[in-house]
C-alpha cells in the first residue's frame, strides 16, 4: 500500500476561526478517509505567549511569531488564513508566490481590487485555493443543491435570505476590528451577508443587478479588542467612531430570472446566528435555518393532494451528503462539522491538484456583489454586476 500524501498546514490567526479550523484538522481523519492527510505543522500569531499556548492547546507541532516566516518554511505545503480581513491580501499573495496551497477565511478581501489581485496570484501560481464559506458544507444545504440541480424544485423564482445576529447591540460593546473599516472593509455586510450571497450564488446562480441600503445605528463605541468567539473586552475609556454598517438589505435580480431579497443585521434581538433562507421554485420550496441546521423544510407539489404541505426532513440519513461519515440517522451533527466537511473536499482537491469550490473566483464574485450593494446604498441607484465573461 502506498503511503497517503501528507499536507503540512501552516495556519495564521488562532482565535475563533483558528479554533474551528484546528478542530477540523484534528477530526478529519477520524471521520473521513481523506485522499490527503493534513498535518498540523505550525501556527503563526504575533504574541509569543499567546501563540505558544494556542499551539499546545490545539495540537500544532510548532509556532512562529511572524506569518512571513511560516510562508518561507519548506515544511509547509498549505497556508490557512484565519486573520482579520485586512491581512488576507498580503498573506494570500505571498503564500501563492511561495507555491503554497491556500484556504482563506471569508470575505476574501476588503474590496474588489484586493480580491482581484488575490485571484490573479493563485491562478498564476497554479496552487489549489479555497474560501471558507463553510455553510455550503451543511448536509441539508448540499442536499438542497442536489434537489435544485435535479430539477426537483423546477424553475427557481425566489430566494429570500436573512442572516441575523444581536451580539453588538449593547452600546458599550467595544469598537473591535469587526467595526473598523480599515480592518474589516465592511461590517455586517462582509461578515454575514457574504455568507448569504455565497449560498445564493451556489443554489440559485449569478446575480446580475442589486439595489441596497445600509445603516449604522450606534456611531460611537468604547475602544476594545475581540477576545475569542464573538466576545470582546473594552480597553481604557476612550471612544471611537463606527465607520461600517450595522445592518444591510438589498434586492437582487439573478441572471436566470429569479428575484432575491436579502437582509443581514447584528441588531436583531434574540437572533444569535440566524442564518436562514427560503427558496421557491415552480415545483416546490425549501426553507433552512442554521439554528436548526440538520433540519430541512420541504414542500413538493408532486405530493398527493390533501397531504401537501411543508414537511421537515432530518438530513442525517445515509443518503444525505457527508452524514454517512458521522453517526446513525437522527444522531445530529453541528457547526464544527461544516469545517470538517469542507477540509475533506479541500484535501481531495490538493491530492488531485484540482480546484475545490468555493474558490477564490467565488470569493472575487462575492466581493463584486458586496461592493455593488455598497455603491447602490450610497447612490440610491440599481448597480449592475459584471457577468462571468465580462471580468
Ligand atoms: N467562516 C465563518 O463562518 C467565519 C466566522 C467567523 C469569522 N470568519 C472570518 O475569519 C477571519 C478571522 O476571524 P475570527 O473571528 O477568527 O477573528 P478573531 O479576532 O477571533 O481572530 C483573529 C486572529 O488573527 C490574529 N491576527 C490579527 N492580525 C494578524 C496579523 N497581522 N498577523 C497574524 N495574526 C493576526 C489575531 O491575533 C487572532 O489570533 C475573518 O476574516 C472573519 O471574517 C469566518
Automatic annotation (TrEMBL):
Pfam families: GFO_IDH_MocA, GFO_IDH_MocA_C3. The keyword Oxidoreductase applies. Residues 141-287 form the GFO/IDH/MocA-like oxidoreductase domain. Transmembrane segments: none annotated. InterPro entries: Gfo/Idh/MocA-like_OxRdtase_N (IPR000683), Gfo/Idh/MocA_oxidrdct_glycsds (IPR050463), GFO_IDH_MocA-like_dom (IPR055170), NAD(P)-bd_dom_sf (IPR036291). Residues 7-131 form the Gfo/Idh/MocA-like oxidoreductase N-terminal domain. Keywords: Oxidoreductase. This is Gfo/Idh/MocA family oxidoreductase.
Amino acid at each position: 500500500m502506498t503511503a497517503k500524501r501528507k499536507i503540512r498546514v501552516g495556519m495564521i490567526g488562532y482565535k475563533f476561526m483558528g479554533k474551528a479550523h484546528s478542530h477540523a484538522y484534528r477530526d478529519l481523519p477520524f471521520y473521513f478517509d481523506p485522499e490527503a492527510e493534513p498535518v498540523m505543522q505550525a501556527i503563526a500569531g504575533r504574541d509569543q505567549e499567546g501563540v505558544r499556548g494556542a499551539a499546545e492547546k490545539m495540537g500544532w507541532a510548532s509556532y512562529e511569531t511572524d506569518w512571513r516566516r511560516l510562508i518561507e518554511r519548506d515544511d509547509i505545503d498549505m497556508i490557512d488564513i484565519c486573520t482579520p480581513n485586512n491581512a488576507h491580501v498580503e498573506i494570500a499573495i505571498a503564500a501563492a508566490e511561495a507555491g503554497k496551497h491556500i484556504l482563506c477565511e471569508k470575505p476574501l478581501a476588503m474590496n474588489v481590487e484586493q480580491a482581484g489581485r488575490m485571484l490573479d496570484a493563485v491562478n498564476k501560481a497554479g496552487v489549489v485555493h479555497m474560501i471558507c464559506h463553510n455553510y455550503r458544507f451543511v448536509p441539508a444545504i448540499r442536499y438542497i443543491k442536489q434537489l435544485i440541480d435535479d430539477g426537483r424544485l423546477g424553475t427557481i423564482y425566489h430566494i429570500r435570505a436573512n442572516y441575523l445576529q444581536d451580539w453588538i447591540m449593547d452600546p458599550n460593546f467595544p469598537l473591535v476590528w469587526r467595526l473598523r473599516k480599515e480592518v474589516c472593509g465592511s461590517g455586517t455586510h462582509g461578515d454575514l451577508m457574504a455568507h448569504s450571497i455565497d449560498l445564493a450564488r451556489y443554489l440559485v446562480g449569478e446575480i446580475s443587478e442589486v439595489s441596497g441600503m445600509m445603516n449604522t445605528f450606534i456611531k460611537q463605541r468604547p475602544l476594545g479588542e475581540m477576545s475569542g468567539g464573538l466576545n470582546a473586552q473594552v480597553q481604557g475609556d476612550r471612544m471611537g467612531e463606527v465607520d461600517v454598517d450595522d445592518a444591510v438589505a438589498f434586492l437582487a435580480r439573478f441572471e436566470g430570472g429569479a428575484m432575491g431579497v436579502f437582509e443581514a443585521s447584528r441588531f436583531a434581538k434574540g437572533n444569535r446566528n440566524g442564518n436562514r433562507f427560503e427558496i421557491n421554485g415552480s415545483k416546490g420550496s425549501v426553507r433552512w435555518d442554521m439554528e436548526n441546521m440538520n433540519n430541512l423544510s420541504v414542500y413538493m407539489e408532486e405530493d398527493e393532494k390533501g397531504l401537501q404541505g411543508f414537511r421537515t426532513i432530518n438530513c442525517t440519513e445515509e443518503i444525505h451528503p457527508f452524514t454517512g461519515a458521522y453517526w446513525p440517522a437522527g444522531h445530529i451533527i453541528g457547526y464544527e462539522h461544516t469545517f470538517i466537511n469542507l477540509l475533506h473536499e479541500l484535501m481531495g482537491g490538493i491530492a488531485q491538484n484540482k480546484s475545490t469550490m468555493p474558490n477564490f473566483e467565488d470569493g472575487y464574485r462575492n466581493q463584486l456583489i458586496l461592493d455593488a450593494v455598497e455603491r447602490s446604498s450610497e447612490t440610491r441607484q440599481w448597480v449592475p454586476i459584471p457577468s462571468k465573461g465580462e471580468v
